[in-house]
Amino acid sequence: MAGSPRVLPAVLGIPVVLWQAVFFAAPLIFLVVVTFWQVKSFRLEPAFVLDNWTRILFSTTFQRALVHTFTVAGTTTVLAVAIAFPAAYTIAFRLSTRARDLAVAFLVVPVFSSYMLRIYAWQIVLSPEGITNALLGSIGIGPLPLLGGAFSLQVGLLTLTLPIAVLTLVFAMAGIDRTLIEAAENLGCRRARVIAHVIIPSLRPAIALTATTSFLLAFGDYISPLFMTGSKPPTLSILIVDTVKSGSQWPRASVIGVSMLVMLALVLGLGQFLSRGRAARKEATR
């Protein structure tokens, strides 16, 4: 009976371990294995060749798509954090309780609504005959090429990332000790200094989490690059589909997929380091 408190958590954790093994670890291992296989006569055959890796990693198409994807995801991350922080600050500190709850509800709804539906709505808004160009035309401007470029791509990716970014920061700000803010204000600190020296330091882990989440979502997104830009230039997610269509090259597409997972893991690790590094340094100096 003495060992039962330790046995029970282990037993309860078995379904979680099995779930991760069946639906994450096993497909990931198979994906890595497939990268060494080859395609003959449009049929996938087991093998152990490095040709898929060398052809993909050293191809100009992959390298350009990699740079483009990183640039797009990085831009989305910066914009998401820059827009989400003042929005979250206003919701958390400036609105009444009822208005704050209403604002959070309006942010939760898009998160659980169809992302594809929202992108279709943006196509209507940004198309040459859409609402935006119609309004601009009424004052003698346009039509402007709003759809099919970098602007429309960022609109689509922010549609995906911004509600999550704002909610993350709102919930983090709700956990800040208000007495610290009141103490800073009683000492004569202006609002800008309170934000810079009290709120932002308290939110560093949440800001790192927001930035990491925004980057991960934008880096792997397929819908916005496809429907908002027509896949030109292609991102890595678009390149995976194009590679599969080109002679059923599943192994080469798997190389791109594994490369994306490695890069996302590195970004996630960097985000964890930035969010926990300061706390770890404080513990080390004690």
Would you kindly provide a written description of the structure presented here, covering whatever features stand out?
Helices cover 79% and strands 2% of the residues. It contains 13 helices and two strands, in the order αββαααααααααααα. It has helices at residues 4-34, 51-57, 60-94, 97-112, 115-126, 131-138, 150-174, 178-186, 191-202, 204-220, 223-229, 236-245, 250-285; strands spanning 38-40, 43-45. It has a two-stranded antiparallel sheet with strand order 1-2. Helix 3 packs across helix 10. The longest helix has 36 residues, at 250-285.
Radius of gyration: 24 Å
Distance between the termini: 40 Å
Please report the number of helical segments: 13
Mean pLDDT: 87
What would the CATH topology be? MetI-like fold
Described by strand count, sense and barrel closure, the largest sheet is: 2 strands, antiparallel
Order of H and E elements: HEEHHHHHHHHHHHH
Structural class: mainly alpha
What count of domains describes the coordinates? 1
Q: Name the CATH class.
A: Mainly Alpha
Poorly predicted regions are none
List the helices and strands and how they pair.
Elements: H1 4-34, E1 38-40, E2 43-45, H2 51-57, H3 60-94, H4 97-112, H5 115-126, H6 131-138, H7 150-174, H8 178-186, H9 191-202, H10 204-220, H11 223-229, H12 236-245, H13 250-285
Antiparallel strand pairs: 1-2
Helix pairs in contact: 1-13, 2-13, 3-7, 3-10, 4-7, 5-7, 5-11, 7-10, 7-11, 8-9, 10-13, 12-13
